[in-house]
Design goal:
It is a single chain. This protein is of the alpha/beta class and 540 residues long. The chain has helices spanning 51-64, 105-113, 123-136, 158-172, 188-205, 216-222, 280-288, 292-295, 303-322, 338-345, 357-370, 409-422, 437-440, 493-502, and strands at residues 6-16, 24-35, 40-44, 68-74, 88-91, 176-180, 209-212, 225-230, 233-239, 253-254, 257-258, 328-331, 349-354, 376-380, 394-399, 423-433, 450-452, 458-466, 471-478, 483-489, 505-511, 528-534. The chain folds into two domains: 6-263, P-loop containing nucleotide triphosphate hydrolases (Rossmann fold); 280-534, Rossmann fold (3-Layer(aba) Sandwich), CATH 3.40.50. Helix content is 30%, strand content 26%. A hairpin with a 2-residue loop joins strand 10 (253-254) and strand 11 (257-258). Helix 2 (105-113) packs across helix 3. The radius of gyration is 26 Å and the shape is elongated.
Length: 540
């Protein structure tokens, strides 16, 4: 339980004196206001800008050093509260720097647990605390330490050593965690694991984290607020999520704790997805779709090139069951038909279905220009009923980019069941989403909140995961336009497996995306692809 409602650091300054030289002003009157429990504040800037010095000055306010500055803490009533001394837990860049090599992993964790409690590492206390630690590892999401508690830290990988540091931070119950580039020496797999643990500690235990990083992706994924430094000064503060709103009624909850949620996402209309002149669909989504180029900029692909690659991915995955034969394909919802057209150009027979009349009209025009003849058709229909489809049967149903979760678990289960009905025996369903459940449940979203559009405009999308109803809440706004709110249910892989079985579909596999290199699903990819197969009568 946090000892304060907000904490501010004022006038942080530090000069370094070298004999024979003028004092070096490493940090000049730095102020960080209104940090709230659970907030993740990322500090970034070039080398020598004062990031590490900022952390050392905050740490010095706990009595661990000397620096100019002060902190002010306030309670729920808005009145000052005394939390002297400030409990600061530091996580270093080099994992072993935070551990005692001569102690076991468990003893290191016990030491951290007692850090602010004044207890000595007596044998009786140690054994009692070790039993407590064993019971709390799973709750902290640190199962990789199970079975390693009696080993020395040197027997662990660098990533596992850093996990020990973060678990120690959680067990010590600090007022604030200071992390100085803690993932810079880790590989990608361990980096993601540390991010997940960080979010769980910050949100679940209401501990604010000040995190120094040079990694732009890391900052965009984690930060509630970004502090930019240059030449010992804070030159910019960017609020990505309004964490102070977490204290008000209506805020979304993460686990048992309240976390931030933009004002606009306090209520979401149940039919937010329905096309209308003032809705997200058709206009603002169509314009904002060009932001996909920004999201995938590291792949240096245009949207058309990306579409071709996605279509190739759909056919590559489906060929594992269907071989190279030409297929009858249902693309639903098809939007303005970019994947439908790509599939038809490769010789397949395609029916595209979408609820938005404007998108279907646009797709029909594009099909006419492509001169694809009877290989392609577009219809206005609801993906929940597919009323326009009677006796027609398909080899493959494709659902590209996220559209499941719009309606809720019951209706999504019925959609999958309807698709099972219109599939031929041995037919397949490919569902592609950019909400990987193994990432979003830990508050990790890869897309930056502000994205440049091809027409020169900007779009802002802010998303939050709510553990209580297992949904993502978000706002979508093209700069100067309306702010749209939405809610998308998030299903675990086991949820999908169960829904498939009820629909007569077997979950054959889960991949990390449609690109050839994304062969396996894990928590490193934002995208996932679910591959279902309708079993042939009489067995596979």
């Amino acid at each position: 339980m946090s000892r304060f409602s907000t904490i501010s650091f004022r006038g942080l300054s530090k000069n370094y004196v070298v004999k024979g030289f003028a004092p070096i002003r490493a940090l000049v009157e730095a102020n960080i206001d209104d940090i709230v429990p659970g907030e993740i504040l990322c500090v970034t800037g070039p080398n020598g800008s004062g990031k590490t010095t900022l952390l050392s000055c905050i740490a010095a306010l706990s009595g661990a050093g000397s620096a100019q500055g002060s902190f002010l803490a306030y309670g729920e009533t808005g009145l000052p509260v005394s939390i002297d001394p400030l409990r600061v837990f530091g996580i270093p860049q080099s994992p072993m720097s935070g551990l005692v090599p001569s102690l076991t992993v468990a003893e290191n964790l016990v030491l951290r647990m007692m850090q602010f409690r004044g207890s000595r590492l007596r044998k009786a206390v140690r054994e009692d605390r070790m039993r407590e630690i064993e019971g709390r590892l799973a709750g902290l999401g640190a199962r990789e330490l199970e079975g390693r508690l009696e080993q020395p830290p040197s027997a662990l990988s660098g990533g596992q050593q850093q996990v020990v540091n973060f678990v120690g931070a959680a067990l010590s119950e600090p007022d604030i965690i200071l992390a100085d580039e803690p993932t810079s020496k880790l590989d990608e797999a361990h980096r993601v694991g540390v991010w997940r643990l960080l979010v769980q500690i910050a949100r679940g235990r209401s501990v604010p984290v000040v995190w120094v990083s040079h990694d732009t992706r890391e900052v965009q994924r984690l930060a509630d607020r970004i502090v930019v430094m240059r030449e010992g000064r804070i030159v910019d503060v960017q609020r990505r999520r309004k964490a102070k709103e977490a204290r008000f009624v209506g805020a979304i909850r993460y686990a048992a704790r309240v976390v931030d949620l933009p004002v606009g996402v306090r209520t979401v209309a149940s039919d937010w997805w329905r096309p209308s002149p003032n809705g997200l669909f058709p206009d603002d989504y169509a314009r904002g779709d060009d932001s996909r180029d920004g999201y995938l900029a590291d792949r240096a692909l245009s949207r058309d090139q990306r579409t071709d690659r996605e279509v190739d991915g759909l056919l590559r995955i489906s060929s594992e069951v269907a071989g190279s034969r030409k297929l009858t394909i249902l693309d639903v919802p098809c939007g303005w038909g970019r994947h439908s057209l790509g599939l038809a150009r490769r010789g397949h027979t395609v029916l595209g279905i979408d609820l938005c009349e404007e998108y279907v009209a646009r797709a029909r025009v594009a099909a006419g220009h492509a001169e694809l003849g009877k290989r392609i058709e577009f219809r206005v229909d609801d993906m929940r009923t597919l009323a326009s489809i009677q006796d027609r049967r398909f080899d493959l149903v494709v659902n590209v980019w996220t559209s499941f979760g719009f309606f809720g678990a019951d209706e999504d289960g019925l959609i999958l069941a309807r698709w099972g009905q219109i599939l031929k025996d041995g037919g397949q369903v490919l569902i592609h989403m950019d909400l990987n459940p193994d990432r979003v449940v830990h508050g990790l979203f890869d897309e930056p909140p502000t994205r440049k559009l091809k027409d020169g405009g900007d779009m802002e999308v802010v998303e939050h995961y709510c553990a209580e109803d297992k949904s993502v809440y978000g706002t979508w706004q093209v700069r100067g336009g309306r702010t749209h709110t939405y809610k998308i249910a998030v299903y675990s892989i086991e949820d999908w497996r169960a829904m498939g079985l009820r629909a007569g579909l077997r979950l054959r596999g889960v991949l990390g995306g449609l690109d050839p290199e994304e062969k396996l699903h894990d928590d490193r990819s934002q995208e996932i692809v679910l591959h279902f197969v309708k079993e042939r009568k009489g067995g596979p």
